[in-house]
Amino acid sequence: YRHKQTSRIQGVVRFPSVRKKMVEKYVREAPMIRGPKFLNTLRSHTVWEHTPVKLFCTVEGYPTPILKWYKDGVIIDLSSMKYIVQDNVGIHSLEIPKCETDDTAQYTAVAANIHGQVSSQASVIVKMSTPLSENFKLGPIGHVPSLIKYTKINITFLETFGSAFGTEGDTITLSATMAISPNIANLQPEAQWFRDDTRLSDSKWVKIESGRGSTKLTLPHLNKDDEGFYTLRMVTKGGDHSCFFVHGPPPMPGAPGAPMDIKIHDANRDYVIVSWKPPNTTTEGPIIGYFVDRCETGTENWVQCNDSPIKICKYPVSGLFEGHSYYFRVRAINSHGVSKPSRISDPIAALDPTEFERLHAIKLGGKLDVVTYQEEVEGDKLPGTPSKLHASETDRTYVVLSWKSAPYHGRAPVWYYIEKCLAGTAAWQRVSTQVPVRSPRYAVFDLAEGKEYLFRVLAANMYGTSEASEPTEPIQTHELRVPSAPGQVVATRETDTSVVIQWAEPKEPNDLIGYYIDVCVKGSKDWGSANHKPHKSNKFVVQGLTTGETYSFRVQAINELGLSDESQESAPITVKAALKTPSAPYDIALLACDGKSMVLNWKRPVHSGGSPVTDYYINKRRHGEHTWREVNIPPIKERLFKVEHLTAGAVYEFMVYGGSLAGLGAPSGLSKPFHCNTWTMPEPGPPYDLTFCEIRDDSVVAEWKAPVYTGASPITGYFVDFAKKGSDEWHCSNETRAVSYCYHKVTGLEVGESYVFRVRAVNTDGAGKPSFTSDPVVAKAVEGTEMTCTVDEESGDIVLSFESCQITESSRFVWKKFYKEITDFSKGIVIKTEGSTSKLIFKHPDKEDVGCFSVAVTNTDGVSASHEIHAEVLEKMLAKSYGIRHPVIPLKTQLAYKILERGRMRFWLQAEHISSAVTYKFFANNMELSPNNPNHAGHDVETGIIEFVLDHFTEDSEGTFTVQIEDGKARGQSSLVLIGNDFKVALADAEYQRSEYIRVKEGKRVCIYAVLMLSLEFILVVCYFISQVDNLKKETVLHWYKDDVEITPEGPVDLTSGVCKLPISLVNCSYRHTHYTEHSVSVCICTSKHAFSCFCSTGSSAAELGIHCTATGIQLHCHMKYYTEEMKIHWLHTDSKLSHSEKVHIGGTPCMATMEIIEPTEKDKGLYQMQIIDTEKTYTRTIDLSGDGKSDNRGTVLGGLPDVVTIMEKKTLSLTCTVCGDPKPQVTWFKNGAEVYPDDQYLVSLESGKFASLTIKGVSLDDSGRYTMTVQNKFGGESVDIVVSIYKHGDTIPPAKPTLTPKTIIPPKRPIEMPVSKVAAAAPAPGSSPAGAKSPVPPKGVKSPTPARSVKSPTPAKRK
């Protein structure tokens, strides 16, 4: 626009008449043109250093524009006082009083008001004024002294840029450094940056910086438009390249990506056409349409141009104001939401493109010309008919028409009408326009797709309308369709992170814009986008792939209407570097010679080309000849070969090739001339294959192979020499003693220094030839090269693990012991490698597994590590391994029992924790008990309780009961011994519960109890029949026996009364009576000299209260020898009477009263009493459950132990306290849960049964931990924890942090055995009956008969 204006009116705007005429023109059009405008633009300058420069420009506009100055796109800071800015009524200037070389830049003046903005640019180049030397001075620009031949500038890239990835809105920088020769300040090569073959320059979105030996490209605000293939080109040499992808997260999940490549076409007075490229929708839903937004320059008010989404990637925006500048952007929409907006377009002004074609110059004579518009020259009249009407652009829904205006010489403004009609009809319709069409170019919108139209134009002014122009030929709108799917997709390997994709073009391109490539991991259906900007060619490099992963690819074509169908998927391809031939072997060495043959060795190629080098070929020739001869036809697999059939005394040269799957590589360099003379020196030959591992900051481990030629005597050792790279000063690492093995750790190196090494073998005759000098090794540790040694918590295996910080596809982990590769796996050694981690696993570890183990990773930068297992550490790991392989299930309680109804016996224990897969077996006297009916077995995972209910507990059940538990790998066992009195008590209780069940549940049985009635003359035995009356029969009889001899009572027996009596005048025998109906019952009555006193003091026969731990709480019980109907039992807690409830269960048997506290708490502590009240006296039995141990016989800790002990290592620690209990308790010490056994370091003692101590001699850090002392006897006990902390000599004493650890009460392991009274001890044994007779006498546990049901007794309530 500016160029046309300048070219047409230059030379005439200088005159006042012309300027006045143009002012009038713009005054009439003031309502339309108010944006800023440069009358004079900036001009570029080249100045010398330290001289001033001033930039001028003239701006007009209404309202008055505001002008800002920029330097290389950055606003100039006027507060620095370096610049002088002036504004004189629209004439603006920027002055730099004293220029420096860093002032060389591009300066921009930006003028803006509410109607838009314009800019003008100029370059300022500041040249150095100081000559480079006396003989070298810069001439004019472009002149170079003849001393410098710069036809070729050598450029070597030192650092290049690779693939880069970013997200929208980020900043990314690509940089490169280079060596330039010759490097002259004023002759620096120009760095040129390209994106997809389009050269880039400094702008708002691109920043380029170049200096001596470096260049940098910065993209400050990434957008999808920035995606592409970047190339750096210097003046003489092309640079490296990189393609990278930009993809940002959508504003909401599932929304499409932003459109890109916004362009403006066909700008006119009131409309423009906006086009763009669609985003990739591989991972999102299909696009419904697009919204186009506009914004006037100088404002931030974005206005949506279309009310409903448009489906094609082109849209005509109408309704613009002439002379205003606009920005445009586009947003995509799908069913999930709206995308981010695209990058805004360049500003575009809405102007009439034919305005300057209507300018007309009038000659006034002399040098004066008047420039005016053609319609202002002559008087008023109708305009002529337009001609040459045609379509300059055709699309799906619009046509851009152009025509030639007829000559017109009137003063009235002219506008145009456009009419259209469908082809084949005469129905002309006038096209509705929002503003008058004044230019001979107009876009007709809203046409039907694929239809043919005719168009014509009419010119009009205030005086009327011209004739219609000739109609156009039928113009058909495009019927656009999406492209067809691309053809076959072929993927080929390129690098270890990229793949080259090629495909066939679609058969129906349909205005193809480009392609989108999708990528998917094999076996997955998650397709991702490989590019987010349409790619124009049918070849693409997919970057950023995972090495070793397998991928599939597909391609979609795209045009402005949308995406095509997907192509067929490519064949899966694994990402690997493309195979190349290996590089050349090098350093051919002579290891031995016998006059007829030579033994050669060489170093493997540095680069394998992606495939292992497996074959080698040797060529030979005599020194001075030119013909090479092959030494071997079959390939050599090792780098050691004996070349035979040589001529003695001749001189030979050799050359070696390496081969792989990719082919034969380049040959090595010529070897040194080798003389074929027999080696006779007594010293050994040179070692070979010198390699390195465990490279650290100050050390390195060297390995080598023994010489082929040993000399006159066996080799006794090796010396390792090293020198700094480039130095001839060698130092021996082990000068005092030669090492006898083929490895050595060289220490004392400097960090970051580069060293070379060599090895010399030694025998009794001295040191032999040194090996070939190694390649340089830099003493710098590689991060992440530590090996760990642990015990597997699940299997108990000892595992050496190493994770490599570097790994390649061809890398291999080589494990060694004492630097010899491990090849014997017969002892349970397993090597397991997954990804970058390798493990050496000892399945069956033993004491022989001590030593130094190392691992090296091939095809890396020397990644390796080692770990030495010492005997002491191995012993601890073996102990831990044994514990893991043979785990024990921890038990809260040992096996115990409880009597249930019907006399069934419940055996139970509680484990710390069990799983649902737990299994168990119960044994009685080594015989497994069946869990089937009538027995029952079960467990509860939540509580850890395992139980077994034995239905028949009889006299044959006496013995040991055992449970064996297995839960996964863990096992546990617990036993309960029921013999002697313990068994008798349990059996008596079981029989009583069984008889009670029969009496209560079954009924219709006769229950007979014998009661002794005492007087001074005789004892009266009274039998009470407690039964249903209808159970007595006429044939029922009663018989009395004394020692199995029947006694006939005096007087008749009346059974209907329910009572029969037998007076005994002399109390010195045992009597038994039996009642026969359908059943018989016998009662044994024992008498002695003390019987009378016992019968008179029945309450005094009660034993002291005892404690028994149950699965649900604590049970208090009292054994009683005798019981009468007059006796009453009361339980009290701290003088408060207790009654039967859910919390307190009161019950018992004829020989034992019980009271059980369910789930006891702190409130249940205190003094408990049992009151036995008979006819004459009240007897009290008490027990203290307050926890102070005063009245408890269990083992207790009285004090003396601290909570925390802190002591310095190598000191002696003594832990001493006072314990008590009756009987004397047993003291056990534990460390971290494991029992402490006495040895040379640990001394355990218990003096006088009161003073317990643990002494640790020479404590070390390993002795730190939690120690536990348990004090326990058959009544239970306590456990106390002590934390021991050890610190080193010289360290600060760590602060003691005692934690309140209460004592833990330990319940008794089995029911408490109460002492037997003297009366019971004097009673006759149950087996005193005659031999061979079945004794009806009950077990000894039943000491007295049960009273009638009307008599109160400690018998428990009826169980349901």
Please name the defining characteristics of this protein:
1360 residues, mainly beta, 6-stranded mixed sheet, 42% strand, disordered N terminus, disordered C terminus
Would you write up a description of this structure?
The chain is mainly beta. The chain has 6 helices and 101 strands. The strands form 25 sheets. Strands 93, 95, 96, 99, 100 and 101 form a 6-stranded mixed sheet that branches. The radius of gyration is 55 Å and the shape is extended.
Quick take:
The chain has 1360 residues and is mostly beta strands. Residues 1316-1360 are annotated as: Disordered.
Write the layout of secondary structure elements.
Layout: H1 2-9, H2 16-28, E1 37-40, E2 45-48, E3 53-60, E4 66-71, E5 74-75, E6 84-88, E7 91-96, E8 105-113, E9 116-127, E10 154-159, E11 165-166, E12 172-181, E13 192-195, E14 198-199, E15 207-211, E16 214-219, E17 228-233, E18 238-246, E19 260-265, E20 271-277, E21 287-296, E22 303-304, E23 314-318, E24 325-334, E25 337-338, E26 348-349, E27 359-363, E28 369-373, E29 387-394, E30 399-404, E31 415-422, E32 429-430, E33 441-444, E34 452-461, E35 464-465, E36 475-476, E37 489-495, E38 498-503, E39 514-521, E40 528-529, E41 539-542, E42 550-559, E43 562-563, E44 573-574, E45 586-593, E46 598-603, E47 615-622, E48 629-630, E49 640-643, E50 651-660, E51 663-667, E52 674-675, E53 688-693, E54 699-705, E55 717-724, E56 731-732, E57 743-747, E58 754-763, E59 766-770, E60 777-778, E61 787-791, E62 798-803, E63 813-817, E64 820-821, E65 829-834, E66 837-842, E67 851-857, E68 864-869, H3 871-885, E69 891-899, E70 905-911, E71 919-924, E72 927-928, E73 936-940, E74 945-950, E75 959-967, E76 970-978, H4 980-1002, ...
Parallel strand pairs: 2-9, 11-18, 93-100
Antiparallel strand pairs: 1-3, 3-7, 4-5, 4-8, 6-7, 8-9, 10-12, 12-16, 13-14, 13-17, 15-16, 17-18, 19-20, 20-23, 21-22, 21-24, 24-25, 24-26, 27-28, 29-30, 30-33, 31-32, 31-34, 34-35, 34-36, 37-38, 38-41, 39-40, 39-42, 42-43, 42-44, 45-46, 46-49, 47-48, 47-50, 50-51, 50-52, 53-54, 54-57, 55-56, ...
GO molecular function: structural molecule activity
Protein name: Myomesin 2a
Domain Fibronectin type-III: 258-353, 385-480, 485-578, 584-683, 686-782
